[in-house]
Amino acid sequence: MSCDYYFMQWKETLRNLESLVLLDHEYQITKAKDKKLCDAVIRLCGMLGEYIVIYNEALDCLQHNLQVQKTPYLLEIVRAVINRILELKHELKKVECTNVQFLNHGLANHKLTTHNVELDDVLTHMERPDIVKTTIAEAFVNAEKKREELRTAEEEEETEDIQQGPAHNWWDEDELEEELGEKFDEEPETEEMIKTRLMASLIQAHERSRQVIRQITHNKQKRELWEKDLTGTLNPPARLEIRERAAKIIQTVCRAYFEIKRKKKLECKQDELLDIRLCGKANEAYMNKTIEVSIIHETKKRKKFEKQWQVSREKLKQDFINRRGDDLAEDYRDLVREWLRKWFDDIQYFYDIPNDDEGGSILIMKEETPEPTEWWESYKTYLEEKKANKNKSSYQLKQAKLQEKQEEMMRKREELMKKKIEAELMAKIMKNPTMHPGFTYPESKKTEHILEVIEQYRSNWDELDKSEALEVKKLFVIDVDKNNVYADVKLGIMRTVDEDMRQELKVLKKALKKDYENNGEKFPEPMKKAKKRQKKKNKVKAKMSESIAEKMEDLAFKGILKEYPPTQLGDFLGDHNYVGDDQRFNLERALQFCGEARSIWWERCREVTHGFHKVLLVGPRHSGKTLLVHILATITDAILFELDLSNIHSLSLTSAELGRLMSSIITCTRVAQPSVIYIKHIHRLFYRKVPQEDSNMKLDVMKRLITKKLLKRINKSDKITVVASCVDPWLTKSGPLLKLFPVAVLIPDTSYSAVFRLLQRWMNDNQSVPRDLDIHSLAYVLRGYSYGQLKEGLESFLTPEQIIKIAARGLFPMEIYNFFLEDETKIKVDYEKYLKWYSEKTQWGKKETKHVEEQREFKLAADMYAQRAEKKKKEANVRTKDEETLEETDESDDDE
Question: Is 60 exceeded by the pLDDT of residue 534?
Fold first, then answer.
């Protein structure tokens, strides 16, 4: 789309964001209260949905923005919105005690749907060097060449073995034929292979015969017409009136036909929007590819404009230095000299020019340095303290500092204890229906920042946006550069001036010290400044070298450094659980579907470029764990290292070789950051009792090397994410496993919506499947089979024989269902085992179970309290009635 569209879209997004933040701020100021938990959750969910919509729109504008000077401002706004989204998610987790959010009721209040709040992409701005990219590409190419050479060498060895058989004489030919016959008989073709080849040849024969018959029929009809024309027996053409009438009839019929066709097409579109049926083939892959290509094209354009912008800035900078560089340097020198003169006139002393890490001479210009009189007072107190501590030993001074530190720690501990007591008291109050205070809308630390970045954008770009000039939508504005470039030049000049003035200050201080000595006075000694605690420097990342390139090639050859297909979050098929919030409000267990899993996985994808993280994926075999890893790597443009324990065992490596392999993986992941390490079937390392089939694997050695040589050597600042998959968690020692991987993500069960979407895609990809197949009923009965089993089963169902049968007599859902029932390898998953393990062992599962129990107890207490209150009210009403009747009888007695 054009830059005009995204320019207008950004202005609209900014207005929507401002109004949303003001509403959010109003809720916080007025301290909006909700009596029930469900009302508080609905309010927070609505706000979260609105922020997600804004985030999607802002990110889209950022990705297509071609105005290079605006990019930092747009980036700051998008980051501020992300922080608020994460904050709202955290508040919902705290209120509901679960990491799964169901937003349906909250979205309905804001006139939104779950489709509007799908988080499809993450904000990533981390590019690896070109040398690393080329090295990785070469590693894959060289590894493939090695595999090809290995295959050809094996084939040549086989042919040589056949050719270099034992020497024989002509009279032994019969025996040789028998031997060869026996050899060939040893590997007979299977029935399935023979059947497949027969069916394929049958289809080819049918197609050839159809084409031949069509050509023969056409030639025959042509010859008959030619013969009739020569003999004069060909019927003459109809009269003009008859032809005109026939043309009108054809025209009327065609118009009626196309009118019916248009109506059917309109109905079909309505049915597709309502998700009742699918008409025609929807090419989702082509649409996604088009969007990706457009984003790549816009990125290339933006990089080109950025280069032009840098050239323009450098030219502007050089011109300004040539014009005013010397004058500005002299002005700054005069400013510092005037400041030094002021200090000498006031207290006959020169204060040090601030260091570069403190701000340099800019602090003098901003007047942020201490005043001479203030400094003199502080100097006096410093001397008094020094005099008081003169007679104290170093041990006493150390003990005094230690005592101050302990007192500070005690104060902090008391504050924490107070907060803990208050939290416990609040928890007790929340359990009491008579004293329950309700749920207050939580205060935010992020909304103020959003308003600040919006105000910053407005102050810099509002006037320019109103002009709607081409430079505001595309390329760059030179007038905006002037202020920024001039400021950069001035800072650079100030740094050079600082060095000169420090040399002058040394001379002045030396002369001043002599004057003090001549007058017999003591020169003021410099006060000791408290040293700032320096941050630990991150370890230097490994740089690309020939040895690392060889390691990468070796890992690619062994299948550890993997190429993966580009995958997006939308490829993890399935809808949201539309009744999840209703179930949760009724204090029932609400299962997450693929829509909620995508939202959770978006957070994990975002964390890849924010340091070292570990994630445990728990779910049945073929349930989409590898697909999620590919999504994680694609969205963050990460390099994938796959550690399959079975493949490592098949390499037959010694303990030392395994250690070297882990070291090379660590080195390569650090060079290729961001990186993802995928450890398959990690439950094998934590078995309570090792099964017989895995007893020959070096599981203890692998566990020690993976936990100590791999995971413990990754620094917190490394952009490396380790994802481990677990299939049978109930067979493991859950404590050590969850200690190593504290974040556990449970893969959702294959619901009706996930199976339905898979069947839709299968229909679109296979033209032989009829469009009127009842996939709704089929999706309902195929629930429970894992995603991989369904995909594999549907592919294997369409054999050549089956395609011929479908063309002859159609396809019924029962045939596909029977095919799955007859296949013994495909068994429905017992998902209750995974739910039980998750709720009993994981952190979030325990919290959710405890929360539901507390809410049920609170509901029982509230119902009992309501019953008592109603009973008391009835008794009070009975008493008042009795009193009224007594009064009436007394009055009647008096009257008598």
Answer: no
